[in-house]
């Protein structure tokens, strides 16, 4: 396989042996990584300390036509034999996605002494611990900045910049598709289905939007962020998850009326009992920095004892942004390789308990339709008190008038609670639902970022 | 000098030799660094890979009463002999500030083989190159995350996360005092002097606010950011600088009327000709993420070819936030020390020309009072055309009526230009000022972030 080295003469001082880079996958991200390695070879060599030589691109089918192949990427770099490619590489970039064969190839690379850069959040959220152990044992880097929030540097800041601090909470808008959908609902009053359809037409959502709207993508990222922030291994199975499928135009409109915006948040927080990791739609106050994150942008808000509030904002997806994160990791892995070292080990020393979903503590906004007659609010308040949930604010608005002179009309009741346990709130809602004057529990939304 | 090692038993696996940490300076930042080293020794040891042992704190006068000394920090850790302290350290934290003796002590530490963490922006912006060369020669780290934007991780993201990308522009709100002052002017309609006085009373501004309001502090940070972003050495003397002292309540009110907010920006951008680095007040459109940065918060907005737009937001000053950044660097330097390596070298390989102030290219908003009679706008527009400056928008509003029946009244004219060279704009403004119907050039403000 011919090597495509940088065009310019390396100066004598920098005439280090080139590092051999294998690329696994040639989709939108892989193509941009290959393009940068070929077109910006001189800059990358100067920054890494040695030329980064793209020795091959593994694909499933070399005959499939691909944008950029034959023009930007020489066709003879493509190969179907990923194993041979991995075996001859110093650095392996995995951007094929999915669990297999990605896992086996990454493991092969690590065991063979290559450092690995991956954008594969699903794999890390499922198989991270065994891969990190293998990387530590082999003394190689396993880097994954691109797996969380695309181009936004968040893995490195949390792992390195905050290494001397104590992170309390991470709140992230880490899925651009759902943020775009919720933003369109807020801006144009659309129902969810319409907004998803529009996002699909614009390429912001996939034909099957399940992984996004059900919060699976965000849950994988939440697991990774929680692991980093709390030095504790968290797998995707431990993340409490609720997608945006039950969010209505009415919820979004009510959010605005009460000074909030609905966002799908990935939340990781440390309490006295352990670590709570969850993904769900939440009401975010309009004056919180996350409320201003519009369209398909991502942002991660971090609260730490020393640093206070930090926010990292940028593009969470797309070929070029994701490739930027991959290349940053690749340059770091190359530097480490050249000095024979490796970057920070995966740190799971704290091993905090990961709490079950119903142990999460947050505030809630409950909307319901009740019979419009005296004493109903007292009954409702009594149910909350019985469950140890205290009320912050109550807002009652007129609903439907009585159907006839002897009947009872309805009113809308909007309750905001103080922080309460998920379990207590669930029991409260069940009890309210069984209360005679309660006609309907219209919505229950968590309030975060306060 | 007694050593204060972590209280708990290190497990056999982590029974690495402790790294000896010398702290130079015991002000608000130094006290917080010492506190963390003493109170969170176990966490820091787990993250660094070895205990970090605070072996001493150098101060000018050990007899001076200090908060925390004698309680949090054992008094016997204090010493006036900084040189002896430096000589016995593996890691030196410099938080004393100022050029000397900080420079000599840092140099002594480096030459003796210690890695150095500093928060000293003034020193780096002036003496950075010689110190980085010395650190590279000695194979030690010289880290400075705390020198720019306090707790916000920005040095590491720009240097490492974006190492595979091409940064085009950096726009930073990097001085909390001036941001607080401008925010108060915008929110409460205050004049600058009132807002500064209030900031002083609240501790956001120093008794002598010169370094802040004249943009000196921001200029040092601009030089550091430009050096990192463009792999080019930029010193503070090369930064074009204008403070906020000429910004009036009227400017701020007009900004709001035209959909902008006035911010003091540190700007570093690459053009075809080189690198432009400058600090000046600027009109930022309200829908730009930097416009929402309120109070004393800092934020750095980065535009890169691959990553697109990124923003990093947080607290830019204060003892605990700055200490958080110092400790992050300290843990990284310790990890590097343990493997006998060092982090990324200072990278100045690109060595781009740093452009003079008048080569900057930006948009302008010019407000002026003109005679209210036909033909004036044509004359004004003619002056701009003669200087090759093209007009984007014009807004004319009624001014004073004529003083008597034979006189001419005045009107206010607000021009927004397309991007133009600073030199062309300066010549244009001079020519306008000499134009008969122009009574006054009320203000000239640059427009950034579009």
- Using CB atoms under 8 Å apart, which protein chain pair has the greatest interface? A-B, 61 and 61 residues
Number of strands of chain A: 17
CATH level-3 fold name of the largest domain in chain A: Rossmann fold
Tell me roughly what share of residues is in helical segments of chain A.
25-40%
Helix run count of chain A: 14
Query: How can the largest sheet of chain A be summarized?
Result: 11 strands, mixed
| N/C terminus separation of chain A | 57 Å
Number of domains of chain A: 3
Domain ACT (chains A, B): 365-446
EC number (chains A, B): 1.1.1.3
InterPro entries (chains A, B): ACT-like_dom_sf (IPR045865), ACT_dom (IPR002912), Asp/hSer_DH_NAD-bd (IPR005106), HDH (IPR016204), HDH_cat (IPR001342), HDH_CS (IPR019811), NAD(P)-bd_dom_sf (IPR036291)
Catalytic activity (chains A, B): L-homoserine + NAD(+) = L-aspartate 4-semialdehyde + NADH + H(+); L-homoserine + NADP(+) = L-aspartate 4-semialdehyde + NADPH + H(+)
């Amino acid at each position: 396989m011919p090597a495509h080295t940088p065009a310019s003469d390396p100066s004598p001082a920098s005439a280090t042996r080139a590092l051999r880079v294998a690329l696994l996958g040639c989709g939108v991200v892989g193509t941009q990584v290959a393009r940068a390695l070929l077109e910006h070879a001189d800059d990358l060599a100067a920054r890494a300390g040695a030329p980064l030589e793209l020795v091959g691109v593994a694909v499933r089918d070399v005959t499939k036509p691909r944008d950029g192949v034959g023009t930007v990427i020489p066709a003879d770099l493509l190969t179907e034999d990923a194993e041979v490619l991995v075996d001859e590489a110093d650095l392996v970039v995995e951007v094929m996605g999915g669990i297999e064969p990605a896992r086996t190839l990454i493991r092969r690379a690590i065991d063979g002494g290559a450092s690995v850069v991956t954008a594969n959040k699903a794999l890390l959220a499922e198989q991270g611990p065994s891969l990190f152990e293998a990387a530590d044992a082999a003394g190689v880097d396993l880097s994954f900045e691109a797996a969380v929030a695309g181009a936004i540097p968040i893995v490195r800041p949390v792992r390195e910049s905050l290494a001397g601090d104590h992170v309390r909470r991470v709140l992230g808008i880490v899925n651009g598709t759902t943020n775009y959908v919720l933003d369109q609902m807020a801006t144009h009053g659309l129902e969810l289905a319409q907004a998803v359809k529009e996002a699909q037409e614009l390429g912001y959502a996939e034909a099957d939007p399940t992984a996004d709207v059900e919060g699976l993508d965000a849950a994988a990222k939440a697991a990774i962020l929680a692991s980093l922030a709390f030095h504790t291994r968290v797998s995707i199975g431990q993340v409490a998850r609720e997608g945006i499928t039950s969010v209505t135009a009415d919820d979004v409109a009510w959010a605005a009326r009460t000074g909030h915006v609905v966002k799908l948040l990935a939340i990781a927080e440390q309490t006295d009992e352990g670590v709570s990791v969850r993904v769900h739609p939440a009401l975010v106050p309009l004056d919180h920095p996350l409320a201003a994150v519009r369209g398909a942008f991502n942002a991660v808000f971090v609260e730490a004892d020393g640093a206070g509030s930090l926010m990292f904002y940028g593009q969470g997806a797309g070929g070029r942004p994701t490739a930027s994160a991959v290349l940053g990791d690749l340059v770091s892995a190359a530097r480490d390789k050249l000095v024979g070292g490796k970057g920070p080990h995966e740190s799971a020393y704290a091993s905090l308990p990961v709490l079950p979903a119903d142990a999460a503590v947050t505030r809630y906004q409950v909307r319901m339709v009740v019979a419009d007659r005296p004493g109903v609010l007292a009954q409702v308040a009594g149910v909350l008190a019985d469950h140890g949930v205290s009320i912050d604010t109550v807002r009652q608005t007129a609903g439907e008038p009585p159907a006839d002179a002897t009947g009872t009309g309805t009113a809308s009741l909007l309750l905001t609670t103080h922080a309460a346990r998920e379990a207590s709130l669930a029991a409260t809602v069940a009890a309210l639902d069984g209360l005679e004057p309660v006609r309907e529990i219209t919505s229950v939304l968590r309030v975060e970022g306060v």
